[in-house]
Amino acid sequence: MGAEGEWEEVAEEPEAEEAYEEETAEPEPEAVYEEPPRYGREPTRAVSRPDKSVLAMVSGLGFFIVALLLVLGVWGLVATIPAESRPSFGAVIVVGLVLTVIIPYLWMLDDLRIRPRSLRKSHARFIAGPMIGILAIVLVGLFTLAAGNLLLIIVSVAVLGLTQASVALFLYSMLWEE
Questions:
Q1: Nearest-angstrom CA–CA distance, 34 and 41
Q2: Residue 3: helix, strand or coil by DSSP?
Q3: How many Å is the maximal CA-CA distance in the chain?
Q4: What is the pTM for the complete model shown?
């Protein structure tokens, strides 16, 4: 060791340096790895949810079409059935409309932001089940009261179906809890 601030010089082995340079001078061949085959399904891509404003618009369009079919179709075609069954047909179609509005609400109740606290999901779905049966009875009543007028039957079923679809879309687009 030397004096303060001086470094002692140590002789290095030149062979070690040269040997190291020789080893690094030779390029190593790059290893080529093949990807192992993949078994099973391809990974699923994320599916984006439809824009809720579009669903709300479709729902509103559905309600508009229901109103047009009801006023221009059903009430216009009711004149073709016997006079004594006209009030009954009107009452049955109104009951059908009420049921088609209530059934989707009860079915989707647990997932909505606005819901009564007294009804639980299991109770609401239980109530929706018999209402679907009552709706089936309403449809049979419409078929019977239509007195064989096939066009009236088709328009009446379309009104009820579109009402139910529009209500379900409305509930999903406006009140669905995320």
A1: 20
A2: coil
A3: 127
A4: 0.62
